[in-house]
Write a structure and sequence with these properties.
CATH architecture of the largest domain: Orthogonal Bundle
Oligomer: single chain
CATH class of the largest domain: Mainly Alpha
Helix content: 55-70%
CATH topology of the largest domain: Helix Hairpins
Number of strands: 10
Length: 475
């Protein structure tokens, strides 16, 4: 009986050769550790296509449809133009390029800061992982060395010693626990080595991204200087013509009509989009309702089949109330309304807004523009490059050049409220971007042929301009 018990234990452990043959186990495990250590070394052929590049390509693809809609809208407005030879149009290309270069530089600066922060975190993680791996390798080396020194005979001598079977079994179990601990340590070490490899790949990717950003920044700076020089030359050539055209009543009226037409068309597009989203939500709700009813009918049929001859009554949880279903189904995928998206409704912010830029107020709402139409907004004089901030949260619906207003940005705040920021040196947001109160959306300038550097600011509701000074606080 004792002999059979010992033979069974021996066969059980012989099936785990690395436990019974520490010398060969030592070689095998060391080889495994050295093979795993290869994971520690960064790949020589690091992937050059960075995650940043892939994200940028995806973002540009998503933005293309919206840009096409705005381009079509702009073409429709241009078709109604009768004015020819407007001097400001000659500046359009260079002012748009300056705006684009400044926006790209700002985005690259933010991206660079984010990437450097990410790189710092990765370096810290790498250091911590390396410390853990060093400790684990030292522990494993010590265990393997002790096992090798002990030799192969311990377990065999124990099995053939004729000692108490209970003691033999207990000792073998202890040895098994030690072997399992070694296996777990090796597995943990392997996982940590893989983590170090992944960390090194991510770190290398972040360094590639920083190199890309630095290269793009250099290109954008060169482009910016080139376009600024080009615009200065054009301004000098067109100075007299611009001065005379600024004072023409017809030009001022056409500028105002152009902006009003743009706002009306944007409001129409926004309403159409809301209707399309509402129709899509209703369609999803109907599909979900139909699916829920089908599942309910299927359960009822199964119950009737399982208990023939008895009238099946649906459980309360299976019952569907047509009046309540619309509120409960599809709510999670509904597109939020502007108020839900942006916080407080815009109308409740009256008297709490701040002017978008600090500076001297040169023109007020309702004031006369010489012999031309009255001002529909404010003109705030400010040095070129001064930050222009969104007065409230909303969504950018237009960010482009418009005759008479230069680089223009329009923000929709919901419920047909819009704010308009014109004559900017640069627009720093793109159409479709969400903005929060106080976000920098542009930089002040004198684009569009304006003689003063600053910001033209309008507020509109249902397409009609109203006095911003009744809504802002100067605190």
């Amino acid at each position: 009986m004792l002999r059979q018990h010992i033979r069974q234990l021996a066969l059980q452990h012989i099936q785990q050769p690395w436990q019974l043959r520490p010398a060969s186990a030592f070689s095998a495990v060391v080889a495994a550790v050295f093979l795993s250590a290869a994971l520690w070394q960064p790949s020589a052929s690091a992937q050059q296509v960075t995650e940043r590049t892939r994200q940028k390509q995806a973002a540009e693809k998503e933005r293309a449809d919206l840009q096409q809609k705005l381009a079509n809208l702009k073409r429709d407005i241009d078709k109604t133009e009768t004015a020819k030879g407007n001097a400001a149009d000659s500046l359009a290309e260079s002012e748009q390029a300056i705006s684009k270069a400044n926006r790209s530089l700002r985005e690259l600066t933010q991206e660079q800061a984010d990437t450097e922060a990410k790189l710092g975190v990765l370096v810290k993680q790498q250091s911590e992982l390396s410390g853990v791996v060093n400790v684990q390798q030292a522990q494993l080396s010590k265990l393997l060395r002790e096992q090798y020194v002990a030799g192969n005979e311990d377990r065999i001598k124990l099995l053939l010693s004729g000692d108490n079977p209970n003691r033999i079994n207990r000792e073998l179990q202890y040895m098994g626990y030690v072997s399992q601990a070694q296996a777990r340590l090796i597995e943990t070490l392997r996982v940590n080595l893989q983590a170090i490899k992944d960390n090194k790949a991510a770190t290398q990717n972040a360094k590639f991204e920083l190199e890309e950003i630095a290269q793009e920044e250099n290109e954008q700076k060169k482009l910016l200087e080139k376009e600024k020089a080009k615009r200065s030359t054009l301004l000098a050539q067109l100075s007299t013509k611009l001065t005379s055209q600024r004072k023409e009543v017809g030009n001022l009226q056409r500028d105002e009509q152009r902006l009003s037409g743009l706002v009306d068309k944007l409001a129409q597009i926004i309403e159409e989009q809301k209707k399309a989203e509402a129709a899509a939500r209703e369609k999803r709700r109907q599909e979900q309702l139909a699916k829920a009813k089908a599942e309910h009918d299927k359960r009822v049929a199964q119950q009737a089949k399982a208990a023939p001859g008895t009238k099946s009554k649906p459980a309360p949880s299976d019952a569907i109330d047509d009046d309540e279903a619309p509120q409960s189904l599809g709510r999670n995928d509904a597109t939020p309304s502007p108020e839900e998206n942006f916080g407080k409704p815009f109308a409740s912010l009256r008297g709490q807004l701040r002017l978008p830029v600090r500076g001297d107020l040169l023109a007020k709402f309702g004031g006369k523009r010489g012999d031309g139409p009255s001002w529909k907004g404010l003109f705030i004089r400010a040095p070129e490059g001064t930050e222009v901030k969104a007065v409230a949260a909303g969504r950018v619906v237009y960010a482009d050049w418009l005759r008479g207003f230069g680089n223009l940005i329009i923000v929709d705040h919901g419920n047909q409220y819009m704010t308009i920021y014109g004559n900017n040196q640069s627009v720093l947001k793109r159409a479709g971007d969400l903005v929060k109160t106080g976000d920098v959306i542009a930089s002040a300038g004198n684009s569009g042929g304006n003689e003063q550097s600053g910001l033209y600011f309008e507020m509109r509701h249902q397409g009609r301009a109203f006095d911003p000074l009744g809504w802002v606080t100067t605190r």
